[in-house]
Amino acid sequence: MDTREKNVFYRLLVIITLCAAVALLGMYAFAMAGTENISSQNTYRLDISERVVRGSLYDRDGRLLALEVPVYSVSLWIPSVRNPEAVADVASAYLPVTREQVLERIAQRSGFFYLARGIDYETGEALQNEINQRNIQGISLEKQYGRSYPYRNMAAQSIGFTDIDNNGAGGIEYYYNSRLYPLPDPESAVTYGEQLVLTLSVPHQALLDRALEDILEDHRADGVSGVIMDGSTGDILAIGSHPTFDPNNPGISTEQQRMNRAVSSMYEPGSVFKVFSLAALIELLGDDHPPYMCRRTHHHTLNDGSTITINCTTAHGEVSTRDIIKYSCNNAIAHLALQADSQAFYDTLISFGFSQRTNAGLPGEAPGVLASPERWSERSKPTIAFGQESAMTALQAAQAATALTNRGMMLQPHIVKEIREFEGALTYEREVLDLGQVISPDTAEEILSFMKTAVEPGGTANRMHIPGVELAAKTGTAQLPDPEGGGYSQTRYLASTIAVVSADASPLIIYIAADYPKAGSIYGATVVVPAIRQIVEGLIDFGEVTPRR
Amino acid sequence: MVRLTPEGVRDQRSLLFPLFLVILLLTGLGLTALYSASSYRAGQLAGDSFHYVKRQMLFVLLGVSGGIFITLIPDRVLRIIIPLALGISLVLMILTLTTPLGEVRLGARRWLRIGPLSMQPSEVVKVSVILFLANYLGKHDRDMQRLSVTLIPVGVSLLFAALILLQRDFSTAVLFITVCFAMIAVSSTRLIYLVYVMLITVIPGALLLLSEEYRFRRVLGFLFSEADPSGINYQVNMSLRAVAAGGIWGSGFGLGTVKYRIPEVSSDFIFAAYAEETGLIGVGVVTLLFIALGVIGFRSASAHRRGDPRLFQLSFGCTCMVLWQALINMAVVIGALPPTGLPLPFFSLGGTNLTMVMVMCGCIARSVTIPAIRESSYGELDSAEYVLYK
Description:
The complex is a heterodimer. By secondary structure, chain A is α+β, with helices and mostly antiparallel strands.
């Protein structure tokens, strides 16, 4: 190739390069003008309004149950890490990570990652100081806002918790997330979520939690749940599920701990259900029946001619209608149920709210089970009457009991009392809501009086008898299904009790269920009744219940 | 010894001051832009907003020393240095790839760390291979028509390009091989040889492009920029926003806000921050400075075209390397090319790159300071130089 040609190629390269530089300037001007319509202001707004303050949660008396606190996110930018050893030392000293974990992550990953998030303010400040003093590079702290629950595990499953991005991840925090933590308002710099005043009451909750905790430990139950409800409003004053967890640190909790047994577990109610079935039967058949002679084991003849054998714990002798509750006689109530119309019996039980969610405002509610009469066998009616072949939740039991405390009119249970804007304006207030006349006022009164006899000496719940305090109760001990196969287990029981305390202001419904107590005692009367007594004594101490002399 | 009359010599030393001025201005603007782009992060991470600028200034000093060294050393010293530099580059590259000294950052094994020092050997490779090619192509200017003579520089270029590729630095490898081939192409070789070589290498190259998902996605993101606004094109969209926000006059040094949203703002996308803050005016100034650098480099190269093919190649290669790298980086920032990992000379954070850019400027300065001989005098240059320096 001759030199001339080579010169042409060389010149071409030079000219192209220089022209490209000039062309680039032209293209720059073009890019500058062309992107002008992508107004950069649109993106600024998003930046500014990214700050959303999650609304607080209060108990009914204004005690803070959940609030926003400053927390630190600690991140590592690996390209800036000069001394991995020093980084690992300070990180492991202040954060929930080990030295080895940090070193391993520095070695294995590149770029940016979070060492820890949601680190409390004091720890974060201390870490920042140490980093500054030792001039450690690569670690940086970012101040954010996270959730704090001052009462720790109190009603933890119902209140819920938030995830790392402060979104509700359980309980009320999840159910009301869009109100507590709205999308950022583009018009304002900070968006505030609404504040929820719950129906919960910290003193009541504390009493319930202590009682549940005691049952869990003393009787080695798998789980315990309980509800305290205001019998004249349907307000849930306390709702508990144990084992429980600390929502400040949900990461270390187990699924068992996060499960809200009071609304998510459904189980055969056992004898507690007699309160509602007897109420239904009195509505249908009246209360004037000849006493039933209980000889412990009876063979009841069914409509199709077959027989069913029903056992009581002991031979109760002559059992009047009133004594069915006092002695918890299976045979007497089965005998009564066999005389009732199936559909009418079923309809009354359904109107007590069984087999339907209460929609109290808690997520994860189980609806319960009560089959309709066309799916019943001949033995269904008598066994449903004493609490088999159906399933309910603790919250459903408390809801159904409002019909007893509220002159036959059942009430809608509530967990949220008020919703207020950040500035305080009321946007929602729960109304006491009747769910219909389930039974007549007389029947309600009568059932309560029957339940009072159970607390008297000789009754199943006599262990909660406190002189001068008006108490009504019904205990229950249900066989749990055998996990190994079909049928009922001979060792696994559910001990439960429903009680109504005539507190000074309004009647309180207390319901507690203990799942599979393993410490010897299995009965509602021995496992749960002393715990309810403990709660009532606490209420007396708090001045909620004044014993009459 | 050849005696040269003043008529046979073109003294280009008048270009030295403009070259010095261009380098000074680019370095000054670069450090200013780096401060603006890195101060926030430096303050956050190191507690000193000047952290990165101070580091970069150290490398300015190192680079200037290297540049002055390469400008002034006698030719025979340079000829000893060249094989040495090439060998050291090879060793550094292999050390990076095969020993624990090689450091993986952002998914690529491109850094070599020895104690507190870390460097990017591929930057050193750029300079040492240009020096080698310039020396070889100049020395063999007469024999380049022979395939066997052409194959040696082609082979060396491909070897180093392959090593850079192994470090997963596709864009540097492409720029590097393009500069090498351009140098070989403007020598007296037959262009058809290069066509053969390119055919043999382009096919595996295309396969490589498709072998890495991120590379393929970047090309896709380039072709369909609206499809993935938050993904791979996020940086480009943000830098376009910065360009738009800058307008004609810019928002003023340190006053940019879009820059905070660009992840690699102190390295690959520093030009976006600079554009936002200085506007079209500042961008025009930098572009003109780079054009001026190109004009000086190419002019001094042309002057040596006949008299000293080695200086011709050296100046040409270095000018192409610096200029093309700058143009590609700027084109990426305005969305005219897909995102690459190429830094902007004088601006981007990165010590090795800055040092080597300075050394390459030193090479250009070398070809400016040595008077050009109009007529070819292969083989007798040493003595000619000797006479001139006397």
